[in-house]
Amino acid sequence: MFNLSSDAVDDIRRRVAAEEYVFIAYNEAMAAMANLTMGYGSTFIARERAHKTWGEFFVIAEHIPAGLRGWQDVFVLIRR
Fold this sequence. Notes:
Blueprint: H1 6-19, E1 21-25, H2 28-33, E2 41-45, H3 47-55, E3 58-68, E4 72-79
Antiparallel strand pairs: 1-2, 3-4
């Protein structure tokens, strides 16, 4: 689905561990296929960063790893 090589996946994992947040923009062909403007892409966020950042503004009622289609985490947030 992401059209990433195993080396690219390993690189993303290393970067998320080091940076906590990685954004990979869709290339022009992918954006055109999905009828999107440029600036869209995939974001990978370390669990700790999500809790730290969102926890300031929300109670994290639930975190379901891979809860959406087996690959995207789901967070249930309650406004503080």
